[in-house]
Amino acid sequence: MRKTIRKYTDRPVDDGLLNQLLERACRASNTGNMQTYSVVVTRDMEQKKRLSPAHFNQPMVLQAPVVLTFCADYNRFSHWCRLRQAEPCYDNLQSLVGAGIDAMLVAQEFATAAEEAGLGLCFLGTTTYNAQEICEVLRLPRLVVPVTTITLGWPAENPELQDRLPLDGIVHHEQYADYTDADIDRIYAEKEALESSKRFIEENGKQTLAQVFTEVRYTREGCETFSEKFRDALVRQGFVK
Predict the structure, then answer these.
(1) pTM for the structure as a whole
(2) In this structure, which long-range contacts are made by residues 10-16, counting pairs with CB atoms below 8 Å and at least 24 apart in sequence?
(3) What domain range is 155 assigned to?
(4) What are 196-216's pLDDT values in tens digits?
(5) Is residue 49 included in any domain, yes or no?
């Protein structure tokens, strides 16, 4: 059972081990065996300081020995095509989605391998919030855009497992079965009954846990703002017009 690790010891991550993990990660399934992804490894503290604001200055960005940014990348493949008298046609949404999926598959395979080796990590969802800022810090060229970031190191904490919805609330058989009100009550009952959930409600002055999500954590204004920022980044990087 994986745990999100946000605190790390001072022990460095050996280059040899990191390369082993990356080698395994790059064996992940991908579209057409084109490997339309890249990974930017950040160890330098000054560079991490430049990245940190794009991740809302979360402490683990500076504390982790290694920060890895996983990118959808059609730059390299398109360059190869042109050198081989083939005209690439990948400046479009379909290509972005495929490359983004491939990059996430690599990131997840890396995470699995890293945890098996005893390392701890945290996926940063902030990557697409401030994609253009990350593009600038990492000097990502046209047709390259970041999709997720992993902070990596040896764990300095052992947190409790986070709650998850029951399997029958996630898995559908043969066709999607939409949810009744009773289904929703049952699926979310355990989550809503957690002491941590009750604390979130009280601390934020809300009546329900759902209100904490929609009115505090992931508001319409925030979602629309970051959606527009990400779209702007995709235009600048050449994936959408």
Answers:
(1) 0.95
(2) 11/65, 11/153, 11/154, 12/65, 13/65, 13/66, 13/119, 13/152, 13/153, 13/154
(3) 15-160
(4) 999 999 999 999 999 999 999
(5) yes
